[in-house]
Specification:
Elements: E1 5-13, E2 16-25, E3 30-37, E4 40-44, H1 49-60, E5 67-72, H2 78-84, E6 89-96, H3 99-106, E7 122-126, H4 129-134, E8 148-153, H5 173-180, E9 183-193, H6 199-208, E10 211-221, E11 226-236
Parallel strand pairs: 5-6, 5-8, 6-7, 8-9
Antiparallel strand pairs: 1-2, 2-3, 3-4, 9-11, 10-11
């Protein structure tokens, strides 16, 4: 049996102190991995349904058999892992602002199985997702313009509850227009949210993309003893876009 609690890593970053912890839950007879930024919980391996749904719903809307995908935000890697389960995916680039998080995966400290680093389609990019999305050169400056079949984002808590105020412009119409430049015709934008879908944000997406919709993902929280709902926002560019 593993120890009841272990702090696997602790690093001070520009965003705050980030830590990876593992604790043994006797209630659930499993090890639970948690990510904290300062005192805020960012992610738990006990609740991954909506992170996985972000990948599955986003890729379900994609056309074609050789998909190039961007994932913004790495965390414990459940969205990226679900992306790689789709055999149509030919390349996955994960953009992560915090090098320690990338190191957790490189050193296989997280419980994801199979590990992301064992899949040759998967590449880590240490950088600011929001700055790259706003840039003219996009996510692959050496091969610009490089467009993608899907860009899936799980960084902030919701479009309004942000890890940094610097991210706010991304969720506004101009920021969403800038993101569109990096999608192929028919390309999909997917966004995870910690709360149920807000019609106002879906409506905002609908003014920028050819179509937009949201899916609520409901799952049981055994700690709270109740069901909770989180959201995946989805939007798609025009198939005939230049």
């Amino acid at each position: 049996m593993s120890a009841l609690f272990e702090e696997l890593d602790y690093q001070v970053t520009d965003l705050g102190a980030i830590s990876l912890r593992r604790r043994r839950s006797t209630q659930h007879n499993t090890d639970i991995y948690e990510v904290k930024l300062d005192d805020a919980f960012l992610m738990s391996s006990l609740f991954t349904a909506s992170e996985i749904a972000l990948a599955e719903l986003g890729l379900k809307a994609c056309h074609g058999n050789t998909l190039d995908i961007i994932v913004g935000g790495l965390g414990l890697g459940y969205t990226a892992g679900a992306v790689l389960q789709d055999k149509r995916v030919s390349s996955l680039t994960i953009v992560e602002a915090l090098q320690p998080v990338i190191d957790w995966h490189t050193n296989k400290l997280v419980p994801l199985d199979p590990p992301l680093v064992d899949d040759p389609r998967c590449h880590f990019a240490h950088g600011d997702f929001f700055a790259l999305a706003a840039s003219n050169n996009g996510f692959d400056p050496e091969n610009s313009p490089h467009r993608y079949d899907a860009i899936l984002v799980d960084i902030d808590h919701t479009p309004d509850m942000l890890l940094s105020a610097n991210n706010a412009s991304f969720y506004q119409p101009e920021g969403l227009r800038q993101l569109c430049r990096h999608l192929k015709p028919g390309g999909v934008f997917g966004l995870w949210s910690n709360l149920p879908a807000e019609p106002a944000f879906t409506a905002r997406l609908d003014t920028i993309f050819a179509k937009a919709w949201a899916e609520n993902v409901t799952f049981h929280n055994p700690i709270q003893g109740r069901d909770i709902s989180q959201a995946v926002y989805l939007a798609q560019t025009d198939d005939a876009a230049a």
